[in-house]
Input
Amino acid sequence: MEFSARQITDVLAGSVEGNPEVKISRLAKIEDAEAGSLSFLANPKYTPFIYTTRASIVIVNEDFVPEHPVNATLIRVKDAYSAFARLLELYNQIKNEKKGVSSLAFISPSAKIGQDVYIGEYAFVGENAVIGDKAKIFPQVYLGDNVQIGEETIIYPGVIIYSDNRIGKHCTLHGGVVIGADGFGFAPQQDKNYKKVAQIGNVVIEDNVEIGSNTTIDRATLGSTIIRKGAKLDNLIQVAHNVEIGENTVIAAQTGISGSTKVGRNCMIAGQVGMAGHLTIGDDVKIGAQAGVSGSIKDGAIVLGSPAIDISTFRRAIIHFKNLPEIVKRLDEIERLMKTKD
Output
């Protein structure tokens, strides 16, 4: 699809400087853009590229003052980065605008399908499943019995949602996500073997949650594993049984959260964090990358390290850690002198 500078300006409530009828059909980085592309300039570090870019249209801040001639048509807005982000969102909506049910999908007769739904090839929809209006179920998705999918939720290819799990409205689950596999429950026996503990709970994902590729969220032993509204989970995250993640908490890749741990709202958890089970992580907590969390954390704390400790303590400790070889050398010398004195 093609859009003119005038049309884009109307959407962004900006002003055009240059040819208002020039058209673009794609979005690109300012340094790589070709003719027919739209780009943006928000970071001053990239300013030199605006004089050499081949983009047809560039979005800039209202206060941008060029020092050299600019070939591209400019669209001036209050915040170029936010304006471009809005266009990316609109572009993504257009790209994913799909409707209709493929004849190659299997849908149980007892399933309830909303209006304007998309269900792609080889998707499987189990008994008594419910799919809300305008939801999109891409090819090769598996939805087990009694699964509920909310309105305008997008389930990308290869997602597996086991039976009895509930996904809210306006959620996005990326390829390879597994929701509701058994929690890791095994009881040790006297003969050193392990007896599997049945996992009969489910997973509840509230509204406006996004879950990255190949992340797994286990069903509860009893009750529910819960991801509260607005949470954002990156790729390759493991969420164990009966975990609860609070509203608007964000978690980066390769983090693992052990069973029955409760994470508060508005937390920021960096990559490769490991959490022990049955902990309580307060609200507004920040946990640095590769932290090993073995104890509960109070509201508003910032922790680093393994085991994770308060950030101020960690910073003081890391200074000494870097000096350990010299400290050991000095201690060895003191010990040698004391032995000589004796």
Residues 28 and 39 are 5 Å apart (CA to CA).
